[in-house]
Amino acid sequence: IEQTSNSSFIKKLKSTGRSLVVFYGSQTGTAEEFAGRIAKEGARYKMKGMVADPEECDMADLVEMKEIQKSMAIFCIATYGEGDPTDNAMDFYEWLQNGDADLEGLNYAVFGLGNKTYEHYNEIAIYIDQRLEELGATRVHEIGLGDDDANIEDDFVSWKEKLWESVCSHYGIEETGEESN
Ligand code: FMN
């Protein structure tokens, strides 16, 4: 799984024949690890994936995702503090709040990482999931909420299994035997 090194994740998707980009908002690495696992599994569903750090991407390019056939953006997003985004997701969060991009044609799903002992449980992931829909994007699978106070790995794995079912029915694809890209 490659990491984007410049701002244009769209160019990179196109030039490498990928259709899945998995963004992460992560402070201590959990969301980043989850993102990597999703990107890798995409190959099983004929969706070659890559992981991307929103801080290193021009997220306005999300409007161009619709130019890539059967494409999808997945967001693994942690919440911190008083319901704050991680440092690397801050600019993206502000762009969503302040902007009014037309995201029609963007297919997406969100997995949130949080902890139920905090008042603002998974607030950023919930916001991003709702905001993307508001901006016209298509939710391919319902948001998953991971609770680090219980077993976030289990939460993630069960969400991910259902995610791929939704992806297959949404795009009319079947699982292949292929393990990775
Ligand atoms: N989870 C929430 O749902 N809401 C919060 O407000 C919140 N604040 C946190 C503050 C601190 C200092 C820490 C250590 C965790 C907090 N969490 C909160 C839980 C994290 O989001 C959760 O552990 C997540 O898995 C971290 O992901 P990361 O390793 O990718 O950074």
General description of the model:
This protein is of the alpha/beta class. The protein is built from five helices and seven strands. The chain has helices at 9-15, 30-41, 90-98, 123-134, 152-171, and strands at residues 20-25, 49-52, 72-80, 84-85, 107-114, 138-139, 144-147. Strands 1, 2, 3, 4, 5, 6 and 7 form a seven-stranded mixed β-sheet that branches. The termini are close together. The model has no long low-confidence stretch (mean pLDDT 94). Flavin mononucleotide binds at residues 26-31, 78-81, 83, 86, 113-115, 118, 120-122, 148, 152.
End-to-end CA span: 7 Å
Unreliable stretches: none
Classification by helices and strands: alpha/beta
> What is the typical, i.e. mean, pLDDT?
94
Order of helices and strands: HEHEEEHEHEEH
Q: Main sheet, how many strands, which sense, barrel?
A: 7 strands, mixed
Shape annotation: globular
Helix content: 25-40%
